[in-house]
Amino acid sequence: MSEETAMGMFDTIRCEIPLSDGFTGEMQTKDFDCVLGTLLIRVDGRLMIEDCDWEDVPLAERPDLKLPFIGSHRAINRRWRDLDFHGEFCFYGSGESASDWHEYTARFTHGALESIEVAPKDSYPQSKAWEGKESAA
Fold first, then answer.
1. Of 20, 50, 48, which is closest to residue 112 (Cα–Cα)?
2. Closest by alpha carbon to 17, among 49, 53, 42, 52?
């Protein structure tokens, strides 16, 4: 993850394939549309994206009538679509502490997962920043 994309929106990654370092926490990527979407690496090695349709929520059903734009749409007809992805993307997550960082590169060839590689811990750009913060605490 570059410093240019360190903050902002992202997409969520779910992985049905056990990761070699044992990490099972929440994961994100900034290598797709960054619209708070959900992608799934299925156990059969296919990369899927969750699609849906949107409908307007009646005013009476919205959580705060003083702010009617909040909760004004809801997702319906949720479904998974195969991306038939070809290429690589990075995804990452952290454990209980922010310094417990896990980063991966997934490689797909014509829609089929070829590999998921664990990035070396010393290659994370934030690892050096966290070392300084933890020692100061």
1. 48
2. 42
